[in-house]
Design a protein that fits this description.
Elements (H helix, E strand, L loop, with lengths): L8 E4 L5 E6 L4 E7 L8 E7 L5 E4 L5 E6 L6 E7 L10 E6 L8
Antiparallel strand pairs: 1-2, 2-3, 3-4, 5-6, 6-7, 7-8
């Protein structure tokens, strides 16, 4: 993406790889992986967009979770994750409730 209008988020997997998530200038969500030597390139998360910066975290199984607020700006919260076994992204699911702030994962 080259630029982001929101704060980025970082997560580290069990192998020590660093993942950087950003909101692009087009409101799409991008992930980049640093393997200790090189950044491997931006990957756009399919179909997702957001009005604020994304939040990312790994679960104990190694799945990469992403949480965002709706690109419509209504405060709706959405979640998806990349399945470590298949490498594919799940569809976005809408959580109950709304927030005026960027989401956070730990």
């Amino acid at each position: 993406p080259g630029a982001t209008p929101s704060a980025p988020d970082l997560a580290v997997d069990s192998s020590g790889n660093i993942y950087l998530a950003v909101r692009g200038m087009n409101n799409k969500i991008y992930i980049n992986k640093y393997d200790g030597t090189n950044w491997l390139g931006w990957e756009q998360i399919p179909t997702g967009s957001t009005a604020q910066g994304p939040a990312i975290a790994f679960d104990l199984d190694g799945n990469l979770h992403v949480m965002v607020t709706s690109s419509s700006g209504d405060g709706s919260i959405y979640h998806c994750y990349r399945d470590v076994a298949t490498g594919t992204w799940t569809p976005w699911s809408k959580l109950s409730g709304k927030t005026p702030s960027e989401p956070e994962l730990t």
